[in-house]
Amino acid sequence: MFQGSIVALITPFKNNEVDEKALRELVEFHIAEGTDAIVPCGTTGESATLSHEEHCHVIEIVIEQAKKRIPVIAGAGSNSTKESVFLTEHAKKSGADAVLSITPYYNKPTQAGLYQHFKTIAEHVDIPIILYNVPSRTGVNMLPDTVISLSKIKNIVGIKEASGSLDQAGAVLQHTDDSFDVISGEDSLTFPMMAMGAKGVISVVANAAPKKMAQMCKAMLNNDMLLGRKLHYELLDLCKGMFFETNPIPAKKAAYMMGLAENEIRLPLVEMTKENTQKLKSIMEKLNIKIVRD
User: Fold this and answer.
1) Which family does the similarity line name (predicted)?
2) How many domains does the chain have?
3) Is there a binding annotation on residue 31?
């Protein structure tokens, strides 16, 4: 259902408010650069520090600006099942094509709790749901057996797999059919995961190099392993650079240097250090990414 390079979109701020003009321009930028779908209000979109009102407004803006030219997969997860249902209902009402739903963070549910959490959301809101497994962020790892069981629920259509384990991704791929999309959640593992059968990536790197990431995913979907591998190695340093500091600090710095957004990030995250900024700038220059300000 969803494949290719799917950008985990930053949320641009100006004077600590959502910068609607920049947000709309980012949507246009990604469509022009060949990005296959957009995820607003994920981790990279600083969903943790958006108010409910801001969260809903950002999703509405992105859907309105995209005008169905590419799919919008709304971030709609929470550590509260009730809140997740609310955000998912809003996404559907607003016209989202799907939602991305993270495993509940902090409260560390069991595998049975994870199953019931996502089953409840799916039963309450008839919209395609992509699960999001990122144990480094949430403190809980959704194991393959749980994912495989959830994949049998009609409107649970895929998973953004960011455990960092190719074995775990492989187990899900092995025991689900082609109607369930396994999507990389780690930019640096996109090439090997797509070689195993994943459909694409929900990408931080695509904020800075959307065209090249889209080209790599397209090559892999077309079984052009040689081109895919070439592009993977071209992007690999940027994949690392995007995590020199906590995501989305580097992604926002890259967007600023490219003239796409102001250099604003919300506390408790802070601006990227000068040392890491110079390292990131060097990587971007090697990729011929146009830098218009330091």
Assistant:
1) Belongs to the DapA family.
2) 1
3) no
